[in-house]
Amino acid sequence: MIYADNAATTRMSDAALKTLIELSKETYGNASSLYTLGQRAKEVLEKARADVAEAIHAQPREILFTSGGSEADNQAIRSAAALGKAKGKTHIVSSAFEHHAVLHTLAKLEKEGFTVTLLPVHGDGLVRPQEVEEAIREDTCLVTIMYANNEIGTIQPIREIGAICHAKGVLFHTDAVQAIGHIPVDVELDNIDMLSASAHKFHGPKGSGFLYARKGIRLTNLIEGGAQERGRRAGTENVPGLAAMATALSEAEAALEERAVVTAAKRDRLIQGLSEIPHSALNGDAKKRLPSNVNFCFEGIEGESLLLLLDDRGIAASSGSACTSGSLDPSHVLLAIGRVHDVAHGSLRLSISDDITDEEVDYIVRNVREVVEYLRGFSPIWRDLCAGKKEFIL
Ligand SMILES: *Cc1c(COP(=O)(O)O)cnc(C)c1O
User: Fold this and answer.
1) How many angstroms is it from 325 CA to the middle of ligand 1?
2) Protein residues with CB under 6 Å of any ligand 1 atom
3) CA of residue 243 to ligand 1 center, whole Å
4) Which residue's CA lies nearest to atom 10 of ligand 1?
5) Would you call 267 exposed, middle or buried from its count of C-beta atoms within 10 A (0-12, 13-18, 19+)?
6) Domain presence at residue 7
7) pLDDT band at 325 (very low <50, low <70, confident <90, very high)
8) Ligand 1 pocket: which of 6, 198, 238 to mutate (most atoms <8 Å of CB)?
9) How many A from CA of 299 to the centre of ligand 1?
């Protein structure tokens, strides 16, 4: 099988898996216990915190461990909202193509009396810093814009947006789940106040993540109970998982540039091959995107059918998020960049890793081309397009 769905989750690296297994076997003590086994677990946990902090140029005390990206997003946004509300500031700026962990949290806050401005995303898959600036009001308590989009891979102008927020005295959070471990992220240079990350997106285990919150930002608990994580997140720490996350991140950081170059070359080979399919289009800017991400729309087909047929041919890919959401609506991300419904339905996301070979890339291109042709062969929309009853968009 060719695994091309790394934006959904990644295979654990051997080193991360080794950390997970060895610590589960040997260092199973409760990090809050005073005997040696517990203290050993505590040391491992704090070493993991220091390693994670170093990777993004933060201080260890600014790292709060969580169960993943969704929890970190929820806690960051809830915390900024609570801080804002205490000062009478209840306006939040975000974008239309955020992950649902952000969008659904914002929708809940709207029900609680907050006002949310969702900025448009342009056809190139990018948010404009100037529009962020214009959206900030006297009562804005938070700007939250993702670092890189999970569907189309576009990398946002985070540093400029962060600078604008700081000049205006507004907290800036970024969902960096797709960026961490793949492209350089530096919370100081990038002017970031809060950042969410998740281990399973960079070859670490599922169920481990972290929230960076700049020193002095008081976090609101989502989980009450014991005094773990300096009283900000209760529950016995997942020491093996968090340490395995740190192993995976250190590994990813050490190889970051080298892997990015290799992966981007495969990405561009994929883009080149797929763009030769008639009536297709790449979604999002060709260069300002993650080295791993390829996302195309093919006119006249259904993305779900495409991906099921690709699965039969041993290719694991993804198409928007229509299936998982249980609705027939096409991806909110593709709609946000201006794709019309019919076109957005025919999308394919391939998210690769540096271990993919040129032969595998060519196999994917060949099979996507064949399956698209096959599906168009009995698509009523395609028939109408060819008969001139409908206009081609792509
Ligand atoms: C995967 C993902 C999340 C959710 O992370 P989990 O660890 O699975 O909860 C949030 N944001 C983005 C951009 C993601 O890609």
Assistant:
1) 15
2) 68-70, 73, 99, 101, 146, 150, 175, 177-178, 198, 200-201, 209
3) 19
4) 69
5) buried
6) no
7) very low
8) 198
9) 29
Asked if 317 contacts 295 with a C-beta cutoff of 8 angstroms, the reply is no
Q: Which atom of ligand 1 is nearest to the CA of 198?
A: 7
| pLDDT reported for residue 320 | 72
Cα 338 to Cα 77, 123, 149, 174, 284, distances in angstroms: 27, 6, 15, 23, 11
Give the pLDDT mean for 71-87. Answer: 98
Single out the residue in 254, 273, 308 at which a domain terminates: 254
Q: In sequence order, what DSSP letters do the residues of 221-237 get, joined into one string? A: PSS-SS-TGGGTS-S--
Domain of 317 in residue numbering reads as: 255-386
Q: Is residue 108 part of a domain?
A: yes
Strands 315-316 and 293-298 come out as unpaired
Residue 223 phi/psi, 5° resolution?
Answer: -125, 120
- Select from 150, 203, 318 the residue to mutate for testing ligand 1; criterion: most ligand atoms less than 8 Å from CB: 150
Q: What pLDDT band is residue 24 in, cutting at 50, 70 and 90? A: very high
Asked if residue 323 has pLDDT above 50, the reply is no
Nearest ligand 1 atom to alpha carbon 207: 7
Both 214 and 316 in one domain: the answer is no
Q: Provide the annotated active-site residues.
A: 323
For residues 148-159, give the mean pLDDT: 98
pTM over 0.85: yes
CB of 116 within 8 A of CB of 110?
yes
